[in-house]
Design goal:
alpha/beta, eight-stranded mixed β-sheet, three-stranded mixed β-sheet
């Protein structure tokens, strides 16, 4: 090979090496910033045995990989919210729901303040779920009760679960009120039928509300029915501000179920599943609408008053 050809070969090799080096050491283009989804909260309304429908809603969210970052509840919704936030699986919670009867949370005990006591509920979280405080839970939780003197909603998100749960489920006229720190508390549905504000105040950017309407056009067969139907009428005509504050509202068809239809767990769960599946397009659209690189995970604040 003559000198001219040798120089050509060397020049070509040098150029190739420089190109390889240029390729190897060039900084890659910056990656697009990851999309941050909103923190999703679910607010569960009350309804005695009808609350089992919440399990159907939660099952659909799990199956569709829609996470629940925050959970809140009122009355029966509080009980289901604690169960879910405790980290138990839905099949485990479903088995417990099927086995639950009035005797597990109430005693008929006529007094001037109510027909029964729900003191047994105070031990329910520890006995059946293995948790005693809000700090034991796997998911942030707030549950609602109503101050009987002021009519204001009182939210619990710290400390002992038992007293808070008992207060949230103290249905007026049926269960005696529960005194906590000098306040007489009754069922949260009076002031917070579906605790949407509570979900936002503990970190939710997007709130899915689940409302369980009771029928008010059937013939009552007991004093419990009279009380329940009276409150159903009141609820129907109330100014439900929570609706305007929710991003998505799911309303399972549970009107025809009675307050103590615990043995109808399968049907109640099916009602919850059907309603949740119908709402999936709206849920996904709402999540997409709040998902962007600029999504802020700082909640707007709604003045939630927590028990210190």
């Amino acid at each position: 090979m003559n000198d001219t050809n040798t120089k050509k070969v060397l020049t070509w090799l040098q150029t190739a090496v420089e190109r390889v080096r240029e390729f190897a050491y060039t900084e890659p283009p910056p990656a697009a910033p990851p999309l941050e989804r909103p923190r999703i909260g679910i607010a569960l309304g009350g309804g005695f045995a009808r609350g089992i429908a919440h399990l159907g809603v939660l099952r659909v969210l799990e199956e569709e990989n829609i996470p629940v970052d925050v959970v809140t509840g009122t009355s029966a919704g509080a009980l289901l919210a604690i169960s879910y936030a405790s980290g138990h699986t839905l099949p485990e919670i479903e088995r417990q729901a099927k086995a639950t009867r009035f005797k597990d949370f109430g005693n008929w005990k006529l007094s001037w303040m109510g027909l029964a006591s729900n003191q047994k509920l105070e031990h329910y979280p520890r006995k059946f779920l293995g948790v005693s405080t809000f700090e034991d839970l796997k998911i942030p939780l707030a549950i609602a009760a109503t101050d009987l003197a002021t009519g204001e909603a009182v939210y619990f998100s710290h400390g002992q679960l038992g007293p808070a749960l008992r207060a949230s489920c103290a249905y007026p006229g049926m269960f005696v009120p529960v005194e906590i720190e000098g306040r007489m508390l009754v069922d949260g549905f009076l002031a917070a039928p579906v605790p949407v504000d509570a979900a936002r105040s503990i970190g939710a950017d997007l709130v899915i509300a689940v409302f369980l309407e009771a029928a008010n056009n059937r013939t009552p067969s007991s004093i419990v029915d009279v009380i329940g139907l009276s409150f159903a009428i009141l609820q129907r005509h109330a100014d439900l501000e929570w609706r305007a504050r929710a991003d998505i509202i799911i309303e399972p068809m549970v009107k025809d179920f009675l307050w103590d239809d615990f043995e109808k767990t399968a049907e109640l769960m099916a009602a919850g599943e059907a309603a949740a599946r119908a709402a999936l397009p709206k849920i996904r659209a709402a999540i997409a609408g709040k998902t962007s690189p600029e999504t802020s995970l700082v909640n707007s604040g709604t003045g939630l008053r927590e028990r210190e």
